[in-house]
Design goal:
Layout lengths: L8 E6 L3 H9 L8 E5 L2 E5 L1 H5 L8 H7 L4 E4 L2 H18 L3 E5 L2 E5 L1 H7 L2 H13 L7 E6 L1 H11 L6 E3 L5 H5 L18 H5 L5 H10 L5 H5 L3 H19 L18 E9 L2 H7 L1 H12 L3 E12 L4 E7 L6 H16 L16 E13 L12 H16 L5 E5 L5 H4 E5 L25 E2 L5 E5 L20 E4 L2 E16 L8 E10 L4 E7 L2 E8 L1
Parallel strand pairs: 2-4, 7-8
Antiparallel strand pairs: 1-6, 1-7, 2-3, 5-6, 9-12, 10-11, 10-12, 13-14, 15-21, 16-17, 16-21, 17-18, 18-19, 19-20, 20-21
Helix pairs in contact: 1-4, 5-6, 13-15, 14-15
């Protein structure tokens, strides 16, 4: 039977296109650009500029790019959406406790408590929106109605940027929902366990049921609510009854406040802003110790650390740091200092292009990105042997020399040896720009040279008559290589093999590359790997 419990008066806050907001708040991307977030080949969110160009939710990626040729495509990241939304929910809870996190970009709370405190439902909603505007969230919609579902539809269909608060009077839920399309039931959270009978039914999900209703000619929530309950139960089971109740404005679900997560992060604000990295690192020592102690009190250790830096002009720097084992307070302070060094271009930085902090540091926030049980990281009775000693030695050297002071090799993908040789700072996860497992036509097979030049030195290859050797467009050698000059020293070529062509990006005139490899052995028995490209010769590697 349908629940007779009266719907709870609810207040829902909706953040349109939250994946775009989370992306622009967490990176240096400008929200005024044409941006689309893609999941499974379809658009799940787009910026206002992209929407003005014709991009819509649900479009296939190719259709969206055809509408906006300069579209910036970004993969969906649920963890990013949740991470950026978490402090927003905390800010709402500071004003109105009892918030239910429906999903990133959508939250609900009971309207009665805030309404009594702020003097009315509309006043409570406007107070929450004003608080969110203070942190830069200007486009937030609020819906107030009987039940979370109706309040959500009020926020989406009733509120607007000019009037962001929409109220459905008590008892008016059915009339408000009646003209809405049944498609809004797709995202309804049913909370109904699926039985074996429902599993066999073609309408075993809200999407299937909505599609079936449309084929039967039921296009609106009012038409669906007018159907007899017995017929709905007979055809669609418990899931259909739940949707039938929602369509009639009888959402009996109570708002279920979340349990706030423990405060594991620490942040330090500086007034006035600090300009020197060592000053910031020194000021973070106490916060780092409290951060590690807070994790230890819950028998946890931090294995991945997120460091967020905020400059005086509003610029931000954010990075996740890894550790071979787990972070202690000194390692946390080191990461803060290294990140400041990278941003300012000081020695010891990561050597990567990052958005620099062009002003003094006003805020540092450290939070655990990943944690593990402390029992997994406790030392054994007799120690962990050589691995533990190596880790401590390398960590101490890295603390003295900087983040890239200790590097470990990793093998990446690519056709050229220099791009396959990747050096990773100690403790970091290898992030390869080119995956090794992919096919790389033209790449060199084993055995590979033991010496690879990051900057291949130029050489001159000559024939017996002293003429320069070249390779034509057909891959034919102009003459037999007889000698080559390397670092001012002339070496006679006893044996040689090749050429083997390496052709890249033939479709792109600006980035295309066409070269030929040779293996040669000099008179001393030393083997070399030479490359001829556009008449010029380079030494790519040496076999020892």
């Amino acid at each position: 039977m349908t629940s007779t419990q009266a719907p709870t008066r609810s207040l829902v806050l909706w953040f349109p296109d939250w994946p775009i907001t989370a992306l622009t708040r967490g990176t240096a991307l400008d929200e005024s650009r044409t941006i689309a977030v893609i999941d499974k080949g379809a658009v799940v969110a787009c910026s206002a500029a992209a929407r003005a160009s014709g991009v819509r939710r649900g479009q296939r990626r190719r259709d969206a790019q055809a509408r906006a040729p300069g579209l910036k495509v970004v993969a969906a990241d649920v963890s990013r959406d949740q991470r950026v939304f978490s402090p927003v929910v905390s800010r709402i809870e500071a004003l109105a406790p009892g918030v239910q996190l429906v999903r990133p970009g959508l939250c609900a709370l009971r309207a009665r408590g805030p309404a009594r405190y702020y003097g009315g439902e509309i006043e409570a909603a406007r107070a929450l929106l004003a608080s969110l505007r203070e942190i830069g969230l200007t486009d937030v919609r609020a819906g107030i109605a009987d039940g979370p579902f109706t309040a959500e539809q009020a926020a989406k269909a009733g509120a607007s940027p000019g009037d962001p608060v929409f109220t459905v009077p008590a008892g008016g839920a059915a009339g408000f929902l009646a003209p809405l399309s049944v498609a809004v039931l797709d995202a309804a959270s049913l909370g109904v366990p699926q039985t074996s009978t429902q599993t066999k039914s073609p309408a075993n999900s809200s999407a299937d049921l909505v599609g079936l209703l449309a084929r039967l000619g039921v296009q609106t929530l009012g038409a669906f609510a007018a159907m007899p309950e017995e017929r709905v139960r007979e055809r669609f089971g418990g899931r259909g009854i739940r949707l039938h109740s929602l369509a009639g404005g009888l959402d009996s679900r109570p708002v279920q406040p979340r349990t706030p997560p423990p405060e594991l992060h620490r942040e330090v604000a500086f007034e006035p802003p600090l300009e020197i990295a060592d000053q910031v690192a020194f000021a973070m020592r106490v916060a780092a110790e409290e951060f590690i102690d807070g994790l230890g009190a819950r028998d946890l250790v931090c294995t991945e650390l997120r460091v967020q830096l905020v400059g005086d002009r509003g610029e931000q720097s954010e990075r996740v740091w890894l550790h071979p084992a787990s972070f202690d307070a000194a390692a946390v302070v080191d990461r803060v200092r290294w990140q400041l060094g990278e941003d300012s271009g000081e020695p010891g930085g990561g050597g990567r292009e990052k958005a620099p902090l062009k002003s003094g540091v006003t805020l540092v926030r450290i939070s655990p990105e990943a944690v593990d049980a402390a029992s997994h990281h406790r030392p054994a009775i007799f120690g962990s042997g050589p691995e533990e000693r190596v880790h401590h030695a390398l960590s101490r050297v890295q603390a003295m020399l900087g983040h890239r002071g200790v590097l470990t090799p990793a093998i990446g993908g690519g056709r050229w040896l220099a791009e396959r040789q990747v050096l990773v700072p100690w403790g970091d996860r290898a992030v390869l720009a080119k995956e090794r497992a992919r096919p790389w036509p033209g790449s060199l097979p084993d055995p590979l040279p033991s010496v690879v030049y990051s900057e291949p030195p130029p050489v001159e290859v000559l024939s017996l008559g002293g003429y320069a050797v070249d390779v034509d467009e057909r891959g034919a050698v102009s003459a037999v290589p007889a000698q080559f000059t390397e670092d001012g020293r002339t070496r006679a070529i006893e044996e040689w093999a090749g050429p083997w062509p390496v052709i890249e990006r033939g479709w792109d005139a600006a980035r295309s590359r066409r070269a030929h490899r040779f293996q040669v052995v000099d008179a001393e028995g030393q083997a070399w790997l030479l490359v001829c490209e556009a008449g010029s010769w380079l030494v790519e590697g040496r076999y020892d």
